[in-house]
Amino acid sequence: MQPFQFTRATTPEQAIHAHAGAAARFVAGGTNLIDMMKLDVERPSTLIDINELQLSAITPTPGGGLHLGALSRNSEATHHPTVLRDYPVLSQAILSGASPQLRNMASTAGNLLQRTRCVYFRDTAFPCNKREPGSGCSAIEGFNRNLAILGTSKDCIATNPSDQNVALTALEATIHVQGPSGKRDIAIHDFYVVPGTTPQIETVLQPGDLITGVTLPPPRAGIRSVYLKLRDREAYEFALASAAVQLGTQGNRITFARVALGGVGTKPWRSLEAERALEGHSVDLATFRHAAQEAIREAHPQSENAFKVDLSQRCLVRALTLATKSA
Ligand SMILES: Cc1cc2nc3c(=O)[nH]c(=O)nc-3n(C[C@H](O)[C@H](O)[C@H](O)COP(=O)(O)OP(=O)(O)OC[C@H]3O[C@@H](n4cnc5c(N)ncnc54)[C@H](O)[C@@H]3O)c2cc1C
Ligand code: SF4
């Protein structure tokens, strides 16, 4: 780990100012960033502790939604009564990840920005375009069992590892940002970018941008939601495939569907194709299977992860089945 300056900010303006012109990083729970620094993957010259900012609250919005402050901890969000009642998919997703101790530290914003678990990204002995642009991708001909099949490029096939972010995608969350050029709100669908030829760029954030919170839209009446995660072992493990769904039905017809996949995409993967294959169609296994095929139609598996094509379809079919049973 290289030496770095450490500073504490007490207002967003202070934090953003401290970031200017420096190879700086904000630190929240530190459960991802400090790991990356110990591995020498992240080498900030300045670390800005943002834990004293007043951004921890989880509050209802005037429009009937829910605002999660950037520094709200994953353990608070997952057990929050409104989340449990109106957004169970988010509670289930967060609970399926990490461990109780980690969730006590992990923040909503830090989770949004956690880095990939690609082993070559985390090991500076290997070339990695995401860590060192232009150096090559060790995973394409290497160990890629855990990596992505959707949104990949010839330069990077790393998976976005988060569970929280898959649920936030199905919920159509909005991310609030404050930066050197002011404030803006970004739909989560537009927040992450696929790697293309610049895998080092993962989001539309600009240097110095501080995430201040995330807003969930008002819950829709009668909607059921489910998060299902499949992994090598039942606890303390990242997803091989996961699915977050919101489903509304009237009689035997699907009136509303939101679908996001995890463990298979270079970003939390919203599937508009699956949503189209569901809405207006009947609630049955054939519809679910067709939607799952549509979700994965553009998959581009690698040497070791072709099994994810089948696994992610089964995961989505099962999640949809559970959503229709959990009324
Ligand atoms: C052993 C282990 C197992 C895990 N298992 C899972 C799992 O199964 N599923 C899962 O989803 N996650 C898992 N995680 C990841 C964990 O959820 C993340 O480490 C955590 O959410 C990161 O939050 P943090 O607040 O600690 O972020 P930090 O480490 O503080 O920050 C992460 C990044 O976000 C940036 N950042 C933080 N806050 C802001 C802000 N407000 N504005 C702008 N930038 C900001 C930081 O600069 C840094 O780049 C695991 C982690 C570990 C160590
Ligand atoms: S998949 Fe991406 S993160 Fe992994 S080695 Fe290749 S470029 Fe690096």
How is the biggest beta sheet arranged?
5 strands, antiparallel
What's the CATH H-level superfamily name of the domain at 224-325? CO dehydrogenase flavoprotein, C-terminal domain
The CATH class of the domain at 224-325, by name, is Alpha Beta
As an assembly, this protein is single chain
Order of helices and strands: EHEHEEEHHHHHHEEHEEEEEHHH
Structure summary, number of beta strands: 12
Measured distance between first and last alpha carbons = 51 Å
Number of helices: 12
What strand line-up does the widest sheet have? 4-5-8-6-7
Unreliable stretches (pLDDT < 50, length at least 5) are: none
Q: Radius of gyration over alpha carbons?
A: 19 Å
Describe this structure in words.
The structure is a single chain. The chain has 327 residues and is an alpha+beta fold. Among the domains are: 5-49, 2-Layer Sandwich (Uridine Diphospho-n-acetylenolpyruvylglucosamine Reductase, domain 2); 224-325, 2-Layer Sandwich (Enolase-like, domain 1). Helix content is 28%, strand content 20%. It has twelve helices and twelve strands. The longest helix has 19 residues, at 307-325. The radius of gyration is 19 Å and the shape is globular. The model has no long low-confidence stretch (mean pLDDT 97). The structure holds flavin-adenine dinucleotide (FAD) and iron/sulfur cluster. Flavin-adenine dinucleotide binds at residues 25-33, 35, 50, 70, 97-98, 102, 105-107, 109-111, 113-114, 161-164, 210-211, 238.
Overview in brief:
By secondary structure, this protein is α+β, with helices and mostly antiparallel strands. It has helices spanning 12-19, 33-38, 74-79, 81-86, 88-95, 100-105, 108-112, 164-170, 188-191, 272-278, 285-295, 307-325, and strands spanning 5-8, 24-27, 46-49, 58-60, 66-69, 174-179, 182-187, 210-216, 224-230, 241-250, 253-262, 269-270.
